[in-house]
Fold these 2 entries.
Entry 1:
Amino acid sequence: MSVVEYIYTLRQQKRRIASIPPAVLRHERNVLECTILLVKSLDLSSADTIDLMDAALHHDIGKVSIPPDILFKQGQLTDEERLIIQRHPDIGASSKLLPSTVSARAREAIRSHHERWDGTGYPRGLAGDQIHLFAQILAVMDVYEAMTSCERTYREPVSHLEALDELERCAGSQFSPLIVQQTIKVFRHQSPLLLAAG
Ligand SMILES: [Fe+2]
């Protein structure tokens, strides 16, 4: 059993599986795969690594609160629908569906995974290093996975290298420049999702 399989099996709960759409579970698992590849290149303690893994695996748990017709809507969202979607980080961070072992730091990362480096993200509009390091990492892994996923609702997936170019383009605005730099260094020669599929 791989590390990912182990963590996935250990952390998932029957009621969580029952209430989260399969596409969201697959996305969270892919983000975990990406995070594991990156984390091997970082000098994190065991406790930090576990918290980051937990945050990756549960970062979108708040999406259980979003009606499926909004979550999987084809095409443009209305302002009202966008606000409903933007509640999912706060809802997820305090969700009763999270295993009780998920730490306060992991919950903070879940709450902040849609913050942007330039302060224009949500839910709090944090900027730069106000954003927890784990959330800075998740933001990059989340968007990389979303860009390359075949499950995009209304856009074609982009290639691995195109996704890395897009991350680089958004370094310093959407993402931490350091995290993007490290991601490109690690992912350039190996796509984490192709590795996982293999
Ligand atoms: Fe999210």
Entry 2:
Amino acid sequence: MADLSINFAGIKAPNPFWLASAPPTNSGYQVMKAFDQGWGGAVWKTLGVPVVNVSSRYGGMNYRESRMVGFNNIELITDRPLKDNLKEIEEVKKHFPDHAVIASLMVESREEWHQIIRDCENAGADGLELNFGCPHGMCERGMGSAVGQEPEVLKTIVSWVKEVAQTPVIVKLTPNITDVTEPAVAAKEGNGDAISLINTIQSLMGVDLDNFVCYPNVDGASTNGGYCGPAVKPIALNMIKSCAQHPDVNLPISGIGGIENWRDAVEHILLGAGCVQVCTAVMHYGFGIIREMIPGIDRYMDEKGFKTIDEMVGKALPNTKTWENLNLKYKVVADINEDKCIQCQLCYIACEDGAHQAIGLPDEDSRVPYIIEENCVGCNLCAIVCPVEGCITMERKDDGSQSITWKERTAKGDIPTTFNDPLAGGIGHWIPEPIEALKKGKK
Ligand SMILES: Cc1cc2nc3c(=O)[nH]c(=O)nc-3n(C[C@H](O)[C@H](O)[C@H](O)COP(=O)(O)O)c2cc1C
Ligand code: SF4
Ligand code: SF4
């Protein structure tokens, strides 16, 4: 069995699976229950001056049969008194001394930061997470993402925190910013020990068509909230990658966003996360999902020959490049497996109307479409829309002997530079005449 234990920026935990700061870490009862089931760490629901919440406060994005593909909330930080939370942190640490308990914090003044840090560390917290990410409610009061969006302010507050913190300081970043590496660099400059991302994405979940009120409805009105869950994983992965690759960040990363199973977690780790945090999946399915996550990652690590989590961190980063460094000579085309095809013709419609008119329909005898290889640009669309896994595959057509990137072509002056440049990539590619569209419609 692989060694799942981690030392994340000086915080030790039996495994890299932590609960994110959110309702599942609202109380000692919940955190103890989670640790008992196998979670390695928990970032406590953000502590500060207790708030007053609204009702209702969540919105769900359902897609066809799948519920909570995305999730949104307008909840604030903890509404419980600090002393109750501190008492429970102390109790959790007594029962689980080897698990990681991180105090998530959000206050305003330097004095408040100093006081709450001392209180949490006295209660036994193993680390601190600074919530500079909350994109609703708290930001209207100058906290949360209002700080995360201002690198200079963020840096100042991190340095206040570091004046007194005895435990590692994780800076939690907001995705509601053009370039997430700017606050990440500021976290480093402020002397932070690690970063975590992403917090939720500013969003409106939808509008009730009958009463013109967005979800969630609070007495006939609503407000923008924070989006999370499976739908945000691609955004999280990209931001984690950006921070992991940035030469001036160079901090351990706790990956958050859309993690539901061990595979999602491994993806975060391969792109640079040293541990991961989970919120929505636990709110949907409960703490028990950890029972699949631990054996899953363990099996994967054994198969791949990874002995520790550290060995996996960032393994996909060298293969994640800027566009200009991709090989323009690499060429794939679609291939339909006739035996697997259920003849739905979704691939035909997608390619015909949404791509490159590279799929044909046969005559009466069959309904299995065929690929017109010379028209196929290898975009993947048909393979993505095909409902049968593995029915459309992308087959390599170049022999692998040649490689040239946009960057290399640019250096050679071998790129289109004028509107009608003979070097345009689409020249020579068959496109039907516009009038053909009308003839086809009449058939
Ligand atoms: C209802 C709810 C409340 C949350 N409260 C907090 C909070 O108090 N502090 C915080 O840092 N993040 C909070 N978050 C954000 C999560 O910690 C996490 O960053 C985000 O949900 C993305 O992870 P996920 O896709 O696994 O849900 C909250 C999220 C939800 C859904
Ligand atoms: S989408 Fe897939 S299953 Fe449907 S016709 Fe095309 S190849 Fe066959
Ligand atoms: S890969 Fe793209 S261009 Fe090729 S057949 Fe499929 S949808 Fe059409």
